[in-house]
Write a structure and sequence with these properties.
Structural class: alpha+beta
Strand content: 25-35%
Radius of gyration: 25 Å
CATH architecture of the largest domain: Roll
Shape: globular
Distance between the termini: 75 Å
Helix content: 25-40%
Number of strands: 12
Number of helices: 6
């Protein structure tokens, strides 16, 4: 049957700009080939609940009516991708409002908004709050691999979409038992994302109760000393990274000062008529 709203499907895709620049992909080889590979990203097919905007609007609309096995391409205009570019979304922000000293090109958070530092003038920064892909059409090359039918598999897919973690689900009547990884509650935003997953389970499935299970085995539970050692090593590692970053900033500031001094000396030494 054709894909419709409310279906949970598994897809693969590669997203490009009109000039052929690859900006996103589920294929690890493609990511490495085009220089956008990230060790923090989970490559492979992704699940989508059609109608929940797990992908951009124009891409989602193209999925509806297709069958499993479909391979195709769709060009999504800005208004159905990341929006039109709005010059009014550029603002002058005091650097004092930012957590760290910004550099041109840095992504910064101001309140609940994220923007890119476009220019720095004294103690102020011009920040562009448009999405980096605003105003651009996106071309998606994709394949629909599967339409998930089994209820337990749907629950596992929903948890993958909203928490990014693999879980094991079992259904007993209208009750679902979901076993999460033992480090689940230590992952940032996991409890909040779990709520999003539960909301979709109750919305799309005939489930009235969900039991979350975090299973531990005696041999797998680390000792207090092991946990303490691991946390100490993480802290030392983070301290070293911060120190290295601060040293790099100092060197950069010195280089900027030196460059400025040299320019000032040249301005004093070389007469204007000689410069011309």
């Amino acid at each position: 049957m054709p894909i419709e709203k409310g279906d949970i499907i598994r897809i693969s895709y590669t997203a490009k700009l009109e000039d052929g620049t690859v900006i996103d992909t589920t294929d690890e080889k493609v990511a490495k080939e085009f220089g956008i590979y990230s060790e923090d990203y989970r490559y492979g097919d992704v699940y989508v609940i059609v109608g929940e905007r797990n992908v951009v609007e124009g891409f989602e609309e193209d999925l509806i009516g297709k069958d499993v096995g479909y391979k195709g391409t769709v060009k999504v205009p800005p208004e159905k991708a990341f929006g039109e570019y709005d010059p009014e979304k550029k603002e002058v922000i005091s650097i004092a409002r930012l957590k760290e000293k910004p550099r041109v090109g840095d992504r910064v958070k101001v309140g609940d908004r994220v923007g890119v530092v476009e220019r720095i003038i004294g103690r102020r920064a011009i920040v562009d709050f448009n999405h980096p892909l605003a105003g651009k059409s996106i071309i998606f090359e994709y394949e629909i691999k599967e339409k998930v039918e089994d209820v337990a598999k749907k629950i596992e897919a929903i948890f993958m979409i909203y928490t990014g973690m693999e879980v094991k689900a079992k259904v007993e009547g209208k009750k679902a038992i979901v076993e999460v990884p033992r480090n689940f509650h230590f992952i940032p935003y996991a409890p909040l994302n779990k709520v999003s997953a539960l909301a979709r389970i109750f919305k799309y499935l005939d489930i009235e109760e969900v039991e979350i299970v975090e299973r531990h085995k005696k041999a797998e539970v680390p000792s207090f000393e092991e946990v303490k050692k691991e946390k100490t090593e993480e802290k030392e590692e983070k301290t070293e990274e911060i120190k290295a970053g601060e040293e790099a900033e100092v060197k950069e500031e010195k280089a900027e000062k030196k460059e400025g001094t040299e320019e000032e000396l040249k301005a004093e030494i070389i007469p204007e008529e000689v410069k011309g």
